[in-house]
From TrEMBL:
GO terms for cellular component: cytoplasm; plasma membrane. This is Chromosomal replication initiator protein DnaA. GO terms for molecular function: ATP binding; DNA replication origin binding; lipid binding. Its main location: cytoplasm. The gene is dnaA.
Length: 444
């Protein structure tokens, strides 16, 4: 049955929304059962096991039967991992599984995300350093540590890196990584089954809780209440809490005020979109890690053309590597230009100067024509400068092209605007907030 699993998994991937597949099915590991015939699935923890059992196991068995052609094919799931699994003894009787001993604690940490392979740049320096310090002094440096920023900028990566470092420093430390969606689903299940005590106990034994994407809790009052209590218990016990959010939590509508105020007890740091040099450095580092020879010029080409979401950059790199592999050609600038033509077009279409002008004008309740006009009143000048800077950050247009797009201004005006806004972003809270909102609007 083990042989049928990969095909079965790919069916599930095509049937389910990606988020669901990644959260619940992807973490599973498959093994042959002790008796050799059935499929034994290992879930990283009880949350995942319960969810898969309730929602997906029937479909898994159906698919197994379909794929293998065995009408009696069966599968079961338990908490465990291949690393700890005893070799299945043929013909041995299936034994009942004893309650998981302490050393069986499953962290859900992804070992692939470390500080070593996190490329540091101006955009993420503070966040990296805060995560590093927390990992060195869990429960003491900053509690909670909250990392926020738009999608694909490395929040999850840093969170895992901190968890992995904590465990490297203190082997056996119980660091639990959960997506907020997993917290929610497990809580709903516990409520349904009236097993909330058990749900709460899960958290008592952790030394650190890493909870990803807490904006997911917005509008879910019962979940927030439960998380609020979990938070308090962990905080009082000096257990480290690390959270991520796609924006500054105070800006998340539907998050309770008391939760927002708790989140502000520790340190909240933003991760900014990486600048051009950092984007290129990330690409080179990812390529090196995969043993791919990526010429600097090709890294620059991708960094210049594919926005600021690192996930998109990685996607472009993957496309390029796959195309080169199939074509049996080396990765040159000419090859990359050809191979990534469609990807680049999609990105450029997504964010144009006109699009930026429209979003900024709407935000400040101006007309686009006002942004393009020669009038220099403060109410117009600042939004115009912001729009120009966004155009520089989010498109691949040159300074003269941006100047042209803004009513035929000189490129030095655009340069001055970018410098001015960059400086103000560090000192002017209101402007920072506006910038973050606009950035999100344009990139999401
Ligand atoms: N500075 C960096 N160095 C190396 N890799 C990075 C860096 N920043 C982001 N990445 C990579 O980009 C990808 C997306 O990062 P990650 O999942 O951490 O983003 P995120 O901010 O958590 O996004 P989301 O809010 O969508 O969950 C990951 O593969 C991560 O390794």
């Amino acid at each position: 049955m083990l042989a049928a699993w990969p095909l079965c998994l790919s069916h599930l991937e095509s049937e389910l929304p990606p988020e669901e597949f990644i959260t619940w099915l992807k973490p599973l590991q498959a093994n042959a059962s002790e008796s050799g015939g059935d499929l034994l699935l290992y879930a990283p923890n009880a949350f995942v096991m319960d969810m898969v059992r309730a929602r997906y196991l029937a479909r898994i068995i159906e698919l197994l039967r379909l794929v293998s052609g065995h009408e009696a094919a069966a599968a079961r799931i338990e908490v465990g991992s291949l690393a700890r699994a005893p070799a299945p003894a043929r013909g041995a009787r299936a034994k009942g599984r004893a309650a998981a001993p302490e050393e069986d604690f499953v962290t859900q940490l992804d070992h692939a995300y470390t500080f070593d392979n996190f490329v540091e740049g101006r955009s993420n320096q503070i966040a990296r350093s805060a995560a590093w310090q927390v990992a060195q002094n869990p429960g003491q440096a900053y509690n909670p540590l909250l990392l926020y920023g738009t999608t694909g900028l490395g929040k999850t990566h840093l969170m895992h890196a901190a968890g992995n470092l904590m465990r490297a420093n203190r082997p056996g430390m119980k660091v639990l990584y959960l997506r907020s969606e997993q917290f929610f689903s497990a809580m709903m299940k516990a409520l349904n089954e009236k097993s909330m005590d058990q749900f709460k106990r899960q958290f008592q034994r952790v030394d650190a809780l890493l909870l990803d994407d807490i904006q997911f809790f917005a509008g879910k009052d019962r979940t927030q209440e439960e998380f609020f209590h979990t938070f308090n218990a962990l905080f009082d016990g000096k257990q480290q809490i690390i959270l991520t959010c796609d924006r500054y939590p105070r800006e998340v509508e539907g998050l309770e005020a008391r939760l927002k105020s708790r989140l502000a007890w520790g340190l909240s740091v933003s991760i900014e979109p990486p600048d051009f040099e950092t984007r290129a450095a990330i690409l080179l580092s990812k390529a090196r890690a995969r043993g791919v020879e990526l010429p600097d010029e090709v890294a620059y080409l991708i960094a210049k053309n594919i926005g600021t979401n690192v996930r998109d950059l990685e996607g472009a790199l993957n496309t390029l590597v796959a195309r080169a592999h199939f074509a049996g050609e080396p990765i040159t600038t000419a090859f990359a230009q050809e191979a990534l033509r469609d990807v680049v077009r999609v990105h450029k279409q997504a964010i144009s100067i006109g699009n930026i002008q429209k979003v900024v004008a709407d935000y400040y309740q101006l007309r686009v024509a006002d942004l393009l006009s020669k009038r220099r009143t403060r109410t117009l000048a600042r939004p115009r400068q912001i729009a120009m800077t966004l155009a520089k950050e989010l498109t691949s247009h040159s300074l003269p092209e941006i100047g042209d797009g803004f009513g035929g201004r000189d490129h030095t005006t655009v340069l001055h605007a970018c410098r001015q806004i960059r400086k103000l972003l560090d000192t002017d809270g209101v402007l920072r907030e506006d910038w973050d909102k606009l950035f999100r609007k344009l990139t999401e």
